[in-house]
Structure formats: C-alpha cells, structure tokens
Amino acid sequence: MERINKLQEYLKANPKDNFLRHALALEYIKIDDDKAAKDLFLSILQDSPDYVGSYYHLAKLLERVGETTLAIEWYEKGMIEAKKAKDNHSYNELQAAYEDLVY
Predict the structure, then answer these.
(1) Is the Cβ–Cβ distance between 101 and 72 less than 8 Å?
(2) Which tens digit of pLDDT belongs to each residue from 67-99?
(3) How many domains does the chain have?
(4) Does the structure show a pLDDT above 90 at 1?
(5) What 3-state DSSP class applies to 13?
(6) CA separation (Å) from 21 to 24, 66, 69, 72, 96?
(7) Which tens digits make up the pLDDT trace of 33-64?
(8) How many CA atoms lie within 13 A of 99 on its CB side?
(9) What is the biggest distance separating any 2 CA atoms in the chain, rounded to whole angstroms?
(10) What is the CATH number of the domain that holds 72?
C-alpha cells in the first residue's frame, strides 16, 4: 500500500501523468483491484491513445477476468497504435499475446 499511497500523492500534483497512472494501475493489479486498474488504463488510453504500453496490460487484465472479446479488441487497438508509433517491440508483444488468445 505504501507504493500506492506514494503514487496517489504524486498524481495529486500531476493528475494526467500517464507514467504515474500506468504505474498505479500495475500496483492495483498486484493487490487484485482489477476495477481500479481497468479504470486507470481506460482513462490513460482515452486521454492518450498513443500510450502504447497500457494496451497490453489492459488486454491482459481483461483476458484474465474472462472478458475475451474486449481483450481481443484492445490488443487490436494496441497493435494499430504501436504500428503508428513505429514501436516494433510493443507491436510484437501485443501480436504474440493476441495470437495466443485467438489461435
């Protein structure tokens, strides 16, 4: 909880900081607060669709909680954004996770 509290404190000064929001979402996953993590990832991607790293983690969360159709959609959106950003590493990571789920 200490990390969560620190991140929340930092976010008070910079509420739209994607790095901090992403880090906080990952901390929520660690304590099984999937709703808070999902809400943060969705907020990040709504504000900054080019924040490619959040697509993978959001889709993995959705996959884990059984929302397969939504997970597939977010993997696909992430691949599109990763391609736009010419981020081959993220694209390959998203594609591998997508293929593991779909095939």
Answers:
(1) yes
(2) 999 999 999 999 999 999 999 999 999 999 999
(3) 1
(4) no
(5) helix
(6) 5, 24, 25, 23, 25
(7) 999 999 999 999 999 999 999 999 999 999 99
(8) 6
(9) 44
(10) 1.25.40.10
Nearest to 24 by CA among 45, 46, 2, 55: 2
Rounded to 10 deg, the angle between the 34-47 and 18-30 helix axes is: 160
Mapped to the 3 state alphabet, what secondary structure does 59-93 carry?
HHHHHHCCCHHHHHHHHHHHHHHHHHCCCHHHHHH
* Backbone torsions φ then ψ of 93, nearest 5 degrees: -65, -45
Using DSSP, state whether 57 is helix, strand or coil.
helix
> What would the two tokens of residue 98 be?
């997508």
1: which 2 tokens?
């909880």
**Can you give the residue range of the structural domain that contains 15?**
2-102
